[in-house]
Amino acid sequence: MAKYIYKAKDWTGKTVKGELELSTSKEVIESLRTNGLIPLEITVKSDNIVSELWRKVSGRISPKMISNFTRQLATMMTAGLPMSDAMTLLKNQQEQGSSLYIILEKILADVRGGMSLGLSMEKYVNVFGEAYVASISAGEEAGVLEEILGKLATNLENETEFQGKVKGAMIYPTIVITGMLIVMVVMMIFVIPKLTSLYADFGTAKMPAITQGLMTVSNWMAKLWFLFPILFLMPTIIVKIGKKNPAFNFKKDKFMLGLPIMGKLSQVTILASTCRTLSMLLTAGIPLVEALRIVATVSGNEVYKKAYTDIAEKVQKGFGISVSFENTGIFPVIVTQMVATGEATGKLDEVLLKVANYFSVEAEQAVSALTAAIEPLIMVVLGIGVGFLVVAVVMPIYNLTSSF
């Protein structure tokens, strides 16, 4: 969404000025003409950096908000409330002027104008997600929109709960590691130079090698402290630049999957998410090949994106589903076995949902294992660091006193 300042003339020839918040200037022109105005000039309103940042942060539509909206819409429509009335109620529950309020207002206008809900939501696929919009459209075509909305809501709630558990488990290690880094930088830049300056009175006394090394590193960090923010941001900058290169993204994602513990966590998280999404799409009545391509798009990992795309192409050519999964070489045996079972019984959507639940449990266990491994590792590293500092700082004093 962007804010546009417009100048137009009404039917009396009077100049009218105003502001509209729409996706494109073309939508602004259409809106003005619909209201009987003749557009003269349209410009994008530029915000300052602070207000633009605040607008993006405060206007962000979280998965939790989409999940709540879907559950409420499913409940209202199951109770027999017409879609337009349900959408009106849900729109009015949002803060007026918020991003979700504006989107629901436009969707409501489209629905009242005779457009289907799925077609209206296609304009905001970046908000709702491709799988979400495809499921809504399929549900409308099959006449089971209420059922699809309920399953979408359940899927989103499970996904949100799972992501919350993963993030919650990582809070403690993240805080501790961040604190350790901050303390280390403060010690090396501010504390160690003051302590080592006391050794200047030792005259020609030779400093131990460990102390000389510490003083060298401390002096280097004190002189080049302004480079540390750049070093911390460098990985993020590299990843953002590399996003434009598919080969870089593929290698990065493959490297991440190969990491110990973290790679296992990433793999089971992706499998849980993609299997649950594929199950939901098949339940909505979307053809398997199209569902696989949608899952490839929303997988969030280039390795699995390529795998699901390859599976879709093979299935389209007539290969079996389980064989296509097995030939990728990246899916665990349990996935190929369960897919084969679902293919044989004709209940692939139900089997995939069970696979998703299985990997959700695996992911929770992987998070617990990661947390359990990080905590003692942090203590060991902290102990080594403290011991190193104590030895490096105290040893010169001990050598000096022993020389008398």
Task: Please tell me about this protein's structure.
The protein has 404 residues and is mainly alpha-helical. It has 3 domains: 2-46; 63-158, Receptor-associated Protein (Up-down Bundle), CATH 1.20.81.30; 173-404, Receptor-associated Protein, CATH 1.20.81.30. Helix content is 75%, strand content 6%. The protein contains 18 helices and 3 strands. The chain has helices at residues 25-34, 49-58, 63-78, 83-93, 99-112, 117-121, 125-128, 130-142, 145-197, 209-223, 228-242, 246-257, 262-283, 288-298, 302-316, 321-328, 333-345, 348-402; strands spanning 2-9, 15-22, 38-44. The protein has a 3-stranded antiparallel β-sheet with strand order 2-1-3, covered by helices on one side. A hairpin with a 5-residue loop joins strand 1 (2-9) and strand 2 (15-22). Helix 16 (321-328) packs antiparallel against helix 17. It is extended and about 95 Å long. Mean pLDDT is 81; it is low at 48-58.
N-to-C series of helices and strands: EEHEHHHHHHHHHHHHHHHHH
CATH architecture type of the largest domain: Up-down Bundle
What name does the CATH topology of the largest domain carry? Receptor-associated Protein
State the CATH superfamily name of the largest domain: Type II secretion system (T2SS), domain F
Q: Measure the end-to-end span.
A: 76 Å
Low-confidence stretches: 48-58
Strand order of the largest sheet: 2-1-3
In total, the number of strands is 3
User: What sort of overall outline do the alpha carbons produce when their principal axes are compared?
Assistant: extended
- Strand-residue proportion: 5-15%
| CATH top level class name of the largest domain | Mainly Alpha
Largest sheet properties: 3 strands, antiparallel
Overall pLDDT level? 81
- Helix/strand-derived category reads mainly alpha
Helix content: over 70%
